[in-house]
Amino acid sequence: MTRTATKAEVAYELVRDQVLRGELVPGSVIQQGALARQLGISTTPLREALRRLMSDGLVELDAHRDARITRLTAEEARDLVEIRRSLDPLAAGLAAERRTQQELELIRSTAAELLPLRTDPGAAELSTHRRFHVAIYTASHNQMLVQTLDGLWDKADRYRRLALEDGRTEEDLDRTHTEHLALVDAIAAGDSDTAAAVMLAHVDASLGARAVARLTSAAAQPVARSLRGIRGGRR
């Protein structure tokens, strides 16, 4: 017998989807009454959903029950890329060593469905991108590694969307496509070193890495303006 999802579980999925799609803007205050009415629920299951989203790092709650969408920061973006530089290549290398034929077929089929991520991608495009990487993670046969990487994905998607606002060149899209094909080939050949190396290059050129550069540059601009003001005042 299939269990019916609770109102809090439904609210969690709906609000999470709005956060990841950027409909709830990073840093914005959540108007809980209005959001509850929009979702057709009371504020009680909504608050339960928000507490769960806080544990995911997507929402901030204070002592007064005010809720805010977690801001995007250069520090978090950097942390995500640093973790992925270590764990994604490890997963790809292990997948090359341990994948089954069935898992290889799933990696190949999801790779064939990949769509280029352009400005404002739809849920289906992001979902296919995720399924390809999860297929590789799963083929590593390291459950702790799979859970860790899967847990990072939602946070990373918000930074991918930020980076996509700047657009992508055809060269970017061709490079990403080539890297995906090279990953499949290396895993199929059982070449763990090449799989790990390609995945590392993939992370280094990723949208997440571009988000780090964008946010770091944005954070530096007020400091630069302040320094110019100080220098100007000394003349």
UniProtKB/TrEMBL annotation:
<keyword id="KW-0238">DNA-binding</keyword>
<feature type="domain" description="HTH gntR-type">
    <location>
        <begin position="5"/>
        <end position="72"/>
    </location>
</feature>
<keyword id="KW-0804">Transcription</keyword>
<dbReference type="GO" id="GO:0003677">
    <property type="term" value="F:DNA binding"/>
</dbReference>
<dbReference type="InterPro" id="IPR036390">
    <property type="entry name" value="WH_DNA-bd_sf"/>
</dbReference>
<keyword id="KW-0805">Transcription regulation</keyword>
<dbReference type="Pfam" id="PF07729">
    <property type="entry name" value="FCD"/>
</dbReference>
<dbReference type="InterPro" id="IPR011711">
    <property type="entry name" value="GntR_C"/>
</dbReference>
<dbReference type="InterPro" id="IPR000524">
    <property type="entry name" value="Tscrpt_reg_HTH_GntR"/>
</dbReference>
<dbReference type="GO" id="GO:0003700">
    <property type="term" value="F:DNA-binding transcription factor activity"/>
</dbReference>
<dbReference type="Pfam" id="PF00392">
    <property type="entry name" value="GntR"/>
</dbReference>
<dbReference type="InterPro" id="IPR008920">
    <property type="entry name" value="TF_FadR/GntR_C"/>
</dbReference>
<protein>
    <submittedName>
        <fullName>GntR family transcriptional regulator</fullName>
    </submittedName>
</protein>
<dbReference type="InterPro" id="IPR036388">
    <property type="entry name" value="WH-like_DNA-bd_sf"/>
</dbReference>
